[in-house]
Amino acid sequence: MTPSDTPTTPISPDKRLRPITPTGHFMMAHPAHVLALGFGSGLSPKAPGTMGTLWAWGIFILLQHRLTEAQWGWLIVISISLGWWACSVTAKHMQVLDPGSIVWDEIAAFWLVLWLIGPTGFWGQLAAFALFRFFDAAKPGPVAWADQLYHGVDPANDPFAWKKAGWGIMLDDLVAAFCTLLVIALWHAW
Q: Which one of 19, 29, 43, 128 has the fewest CB atoms closer than 10 angstroms to its CB?
């Protein structure tokens, strides 16, 4: 190991991250941006995660009687796989490891919750929304662990840093979805 390989070596100015604030123009510049930014719901100046979750709920209501259980399952599997790609690409282009404006993670995870608790009415879905937002925003225990898992990656030295960041973006919301489902299951069992 040479002295230049040590972790204390300062990053050269051309390798430092230069965060980009997303706009409508940025979103429309790449299909991954459109998906990751939740078709614009992530551009909300306030509470983009909540806006993305509301967008997911609205789309679920529109499609819940049009798709079969199996089609919902495939939609969610594809949403998670495609979301990993879209979140990786968009985070790299924004030069931010976990941008708040990326909301596809909330969308895919909340679809998973709504699919697995169904069929249920408005009040059941509202309770799921409140629980999911609590776990996603407060990040207790395992959600915090998943959220921090890839925050330490260094894009200047790790060629897979953005792919890890994309998976990290998706993972904490999937853990929040699991916690939401666990609370709902315990509620029903009690």
A: 19
Task: Kindly report, residue by residue over 89-114, the tens digit of the pLDDT.
Answer: 999 999 999 999 999 999 999 999 99
The backbone torsions φ and ψ at residue 22, rounded to the nearest 5 degrees and listed phi first, read: -70, 145
d(CA 168, CA 158): 15
**Concatenated DSSP letters of 58-119:** HHHHHHTTTS-HHHHHHHHHHHHHHHHHHHHHHHHHHT-SS-TT--HHHHHHHHHHHHHH-S
- For every residue of 105-147, DSSP letters joined together read HHHHHHHHHHHHH-S--HHHHHHHHHHHHHHHHH--HHHHHHH
pTM score, whole prediction: 0.89
Q: Please state, as a whole number, how many other Cβ atoms lie within 10 Å of the Cβ of residue 68.
A: 8
79 neighbors 36 (Cβ within 8 angstroms): no
Are residues 5 and 154 in contact, defined by beta-carbon separation less than 8 angstroms?
A: no
Burial class (CB in 10 A: 0-12, 13-18, 19+), 26: middle
Q: Which two tokens stand for residue 6?
A: 């040590």
One-letter amino acid of 65 = H
